[in-house]
Amino acid sequence: MSQDQFVLPGDIIVTGDYQPEQNVILDGDRLMSTAIGFSEIKDDLVTVTPLTGLYIPKTDDLVVGKIVSHNALSWEVNINSYYPGILTASDIFGKDYSPSRDDLSLKLNTGDIVLARIANLGSRDPLITITGENLGKIDSGELVKISPAKIPRLTEKNGSMIQTIEESTNATITVGQNGLIILKCDNSAGLKKAIASVKMIGMIQYEVNIEDKIQNILDESN
Amino acid sequence: MGGREANVVLLDENGIRSDGRKVNETRKVTIKAGVLKNAGGSAYIEFGGNKILAGVFGPRDVHPKHMSNPDTGILRVRYHMEPFSVDERKKPAPSRREIEISKVITEALTPAVILEKFPRTAIDVYLEVLQADGGTRCAALAAASVALADAGIPMRDLVSACAAGKAADAIILDVNNEEDQAGQADMPIGYMPNLGKITLLQLDGVLTTDEFKKCIELGLEGCKQVYEIQKSALREKYFSSGDNN
């Protein structure tokens, strides 16, 4: 059996003395995949990178979310995951926040888009924060949604793919790990191309030569 | 059971069944994964004359709230037959039979799905039978398992399904509608091929111990054939070239 391979749920990746990691379970001495994806064996660790599914929150991840609702103490944010992100009121108003004095809807309204960071994953819904550089409400730009499973393809090799797109279109691209991407660009032709490139990465299944395809889109009718 | 339609020849002298199959042959099965855009995962199966569409949502918030479990997710399955799926219009309200099938499919899928990863959520599976031709619960179960995998829900194994039975005193694989109506026994089986576990086993009719063993053996053979088709459906969607292993 080769080192890296495509696997489906239930497929036996390897048999023997290995440790199951992400999306892998142990059945006797057989290591089986639990997801559709790409399996990798590093030393004695076996992982499967999934090709489908919703976003699984990880602490310190950058995410783009949409405000769904708010109560007296927090906003509920859709972060394209199994659970809603919770943005606490004290995160914006500070420690002396008082529900009777401050009105949450003045700061963020239902439908607003925010760039946030996952602060804490407790046993309850994930807490998010917008305190930090460049974080907060997004006022302009184009929102593109791709599968969260495709984000690693977009950001691999230290974001060289994003740099290529940014350089040739003059767009600025903010990638949320949850599959939501914000693109900003002053000229509409560049914006169109940047959006097409990002959508392309979201569309295609596993293919080795993704860079060439992106280059084709960027080179088109310049 | 017991030969209600005595005039149908279920098995001729050459061992060929009413629809031209041999005793150990399944009907033609085709599966397509990811056919619906708005569902998290989906699949379409044609199992002989059966046509079934499966859609998966979630994991998502549980409504009503009291059904949610703080330790694990829950799996809910709705099996539903369209009014036009059978000869005479079927009332669209859930019948006793549909409620039963929803329950057995839920129980057949639960051992495969890793629900513990998603406490306080529900995974909803909707199965719509567009055309029925005997053995819909097996076909629906096979489609549901492909749709769950397509939705990216972690699973210990795919669940494949196929029925075996007895008609004209012979043990047969994949019972069709006539054989179900006029035959002697029908045994739907759900099976996790890699874990080697049976998750669904029902029996309608009477079998001797020997026949029962033969029936299971033949049924599992059918399940393995269906499993290969499920795998190729998922491979086709995700690993474009289709044969990467």
From TrEMBL, chain A:
All residue ranges annotated as the K Homology domain in the record: 143-187
InterPro entries: Exosome_RNA_bind1/RRP40/RRP4 (IPR026699), KH_dom_type_1 (IPR004088), KH_dom_type_1_sf (IPR036612), NA-bd_OB-fold (IPR012340), S1_RRP4 (IPR048565)
Entry keyword set: Exosome, RNA-binding
Cellular compartments per GO CC: exosome (RNase complex)
Any single Pfam family the record assigns to this protein: KH_6
Keyword Membrane: no
Molecular-function GO term, any one: RNA binding
GO terms (BP aspect): CUT catabolic process; exonucleolytic trimming to generate mature 3'-end of 5.8S rRNA from tricistronic rRNA transcript (SSU-rRNA, 5.8S rRNA, LSU-rRNA); poly(A)-dependent snoRNA 3'-end processing; U4 snRNA 3'-end processing
Keyword RNA-binding: yes
Family as reported in the entry's similarity comment: Belongs to the RRP4 family.
Protein name as it appears in the record: RNA-binding protein
TrEMBL record, chain B:
GO biological process entries: gene expression; nuclear-transcribed mRNA catabolic process; rRNA catabolic process
Cellular localization per UniProt: Cytoplasm
UniProt cross-references to SUPFAM superfamilies, sorted A to Z: Ribonuclease PH domain 2-like, Ribosomal protein S5 domain 2-like
Keywords, sorted A to Z: Cytoplasm, Exonuclease, Exosome, Hydrolase, Nuclease
One GO CC term, this protein: cytoplasmic exosome (RNase complex)
InterPro entries reported for this sequence: ExoRNase_PH_dom1 (IPR001247), ExoRNase_PH_dom2 (IPR015847), ExoRNase_PH_dom2_sf (IPR036345), PNPase/RNase_PH_dom_sf (IPR027408), Ribosomal_Su5_D2-typ_SF (IPR020568), RNase_PH (IPR050080), Rrp41 (IPR011807)
UniProt keyword annotation of Hydrolase present: yes
Top-rank lineage group of the source organism: Archaea
Known EC number: 3.1.13.-
Domain Exoribonuclease phosphorolytic: 25-154, 157-222
CDD domains in the record: RNase_PH_archRRP41 (cd11366)
GO molecular function per UniProt: 3'-5'-RNA exonuclease activity; RNA binding
UniProt entry tagged with the keyword Hydrolase: yes
Family indicated by similarity: Belongs to the RNase PH family. Rrp41 subfamily.
HAMAP family in the cross-refs: Exosome_Rrp41
Cited function: Catalytic component of the exosome, which is a complex involved in RNA degradation. Has 3'->5' exoribonuclease activity. Can also synthesize heteropolymeric RNA-tails.
Subunit record text: Component of the archaeal exosome complex. Forms a hexameric ring-like arrangement composed of 3 Rrp41-Rrp42 heterodimers. The hexameric ring associates with a trimer of Rrp4 and/or Csl4 subunits.
Protein name: Exosome complex component Rrp41
Origin species: Marine Group I thaumarchaeote
